[in-house]
Structure to design on (676 residues):
DNA sequence: TTGAAAGCGCTAACAG
DNA sequence: CTGTTAGCGCTTTCAA
């Protein structure tokens, strides 16, 4: 790879001029002719700045890491796309890290920035990483922004408008005439789960419906957890006629469990899922979902992060646009007895 | 972050000693006492080597990129896990890149290594990137290994044993007594598709069954493509009683299309899919699949790559272990008329 | 308007 | 057994 000295030699100028011209240094004050010559030679030699040299000199890598518990989801793909977009705008590169290794005691994060591999990161916490663990990991580090989840006593996060989304899902069932509506939510101490549950409760409350503790399950977002939730729901005396599942994957599990139990969807029980992804179109019946603006979360998160790295105060953002959107498919219908 | 000079000062030795001790330089020949002191101080100061400094000096980043058209699949997660494992063994880091931007004219790849961000990459080509385009991109670059696909006239690849896998899927239907077996394969010019089709043909041939051109569709691996394939298959005079779909996602689309057409699976048509992933358990009916060793592909690919970077000649590998495995679920049964 | 030179943190060849 | 030092490619201050 061509380097600065090479360009300088061929263009008959010094390296410093080359560097300044190539970086569009505002104080270029180089003769236009010289400038053109430098650019010309750089192009001819197909110059690309050596990353390590620059990083060493600037003490900044211009790279960010996006840490997630799970890459293999279309939802993550959206998040990534948004993050990548924002990174490009600011000439940053985004690396992806698996959160498996991020546990309370781990110093993976500190190492990543300590080594200077990345300047900061966007962290999507694992659902069962406690608030304390999280805080001990990231403290008040300005080089981190949390996504989809946040933690008390710490600024720097971008989350979905979970309450509006969950409320929308619940309202859909209410509008269809359902009165006994169950919630299959996340694990008890997650703030995400709390917000979604709040949206659910809000919708019930506004409709004047009673919220029954026996109708809310808090086992988590996996298909298996939802299967167990359905089993317990079917075991109760007053079966729900509709259920909102706080996650698509859970909803898929719920459908499986209902089918196994011989309960028809939607005629006996309606199911609506939080989050939309392509499989929802291919389940049986096809899932009615609420689509959330994940792309925006990624976008805002890295913008925030870059702002923070630039010294701006950390913020806690809630993405409200585009608004949560109901995607009507076939898993919801009016209750039989309505 | 603590740096070498700092450690040297506190330990009362020179930087070179520190560097050698910390890197486990075989020629350490340092007094055990000195060694311990250095390690001690390094730990106290929580030292981590600055990445840029090292990369600049060594002219190697010790990082690899895994380039893929699609992160959002459990299959990719497996690949990644394998790659990460192998990378760790050799003290490399793996970055993930999206292949969207990798088109014929693009210099993204060249740039990545040109900048010195990565030393090489594992490339999973996009299905509709032609052989020529691919070759023009990677030429005979020793810093690249191709996964799941390969291209004539180029060494350095790791692929699945597609023919055995597809053969296994087909044999399963044959064993159930099916005679008219269709294939929903990949796009025509893909070498992956060719190998899978070959496995299918081989199974038919060994069983003495005739292979009918009207029963093989080559529209690609997406759910939509498979839906169209099913429609055309149902339109033909002699309907198949079993179909092997060369990809899970396609199989999910196939199930949707069959349901829409009112064709019962498996009583009227059996469906078996190539590749296993969690959704297969949750479709209706649950999909019988052939599970392929994706993890191993990732593992071997980065091992190969690291070998190549070390100057060893490029190889073309086929992963045969663990063997393709039939995962029996509910989408296959003997044909009605058997 | 341009050039010389220092120095980012590290490794390794060489000298003691 | 340990220290000195050059230099990787780059940016930037200072001088010309």
């Amino acid at each position: 790879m061509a380097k600065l000295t090479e360009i300088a030699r061929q263009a008959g100028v010094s390296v410093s001029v080359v560097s300044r011209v190539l970086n569009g240094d505002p104080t270029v004050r180089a003769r236009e002719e010289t400038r053109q010559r430098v650019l010309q030679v750089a192009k001819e030699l197909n110059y690309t700045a050596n990353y390590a040299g620059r990083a060493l000199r600037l003490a900044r890598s211009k790279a960010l890491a996006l840490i997630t518990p799970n890459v293999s989801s279309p939802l993550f793909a959206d998040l990534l796309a948004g993050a990548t977009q924002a990174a490009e705008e600011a000439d940053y590169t985004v690396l992806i890290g698996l959160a498996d290794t991020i546990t309370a005691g781990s110093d993976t994060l500190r190492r990543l920035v300590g080594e200077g591999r990345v300047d900061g990161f966007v962290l999507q916490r694992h659902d069962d990483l406690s608030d304390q663990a999280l805080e001990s990991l990231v403290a008040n580090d300005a080089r981190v922004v949390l996504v989809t989840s946040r933690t008390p006593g710490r600024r720097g996060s971008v989350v979905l408008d979970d309450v509006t989304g969950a409320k929308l899902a619940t309202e859909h069932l209410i509008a269809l005439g359902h009165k006994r509506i169950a919630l299959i939510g996340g694990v008890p101490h997650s703030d995400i789960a709390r917000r979604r549950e709040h949206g659910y409760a809000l919708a019930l409350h506004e409709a004047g419906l009673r919220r029954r503790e026996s109708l809310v399950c808090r086992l988590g977002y996996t298909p298996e957890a939802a299967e167990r939730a359905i089993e317990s729901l079917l075991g109760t005396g007053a079966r729900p006629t509709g259920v909102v599942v706080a996650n698509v994957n859970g909803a898929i599990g719920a459908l499986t469990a209902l089918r196994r139990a011989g309960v028809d969807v939607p005629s006996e029980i309606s199911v609506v899922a939080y989050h939309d992804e392509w499989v929802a179109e291919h389940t049986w019946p096809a899932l009615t979902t609420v689509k959330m603006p994940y792309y925006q979360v990624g976008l805002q998160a890295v913008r925030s992060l870059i702002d923070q790295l630039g010294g701006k105060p950390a913020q806690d953002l809630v993405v409200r646009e585009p608004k949560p959107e109901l995607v009507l498919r076939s898993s919801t219908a009016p209750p039989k007895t309505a």
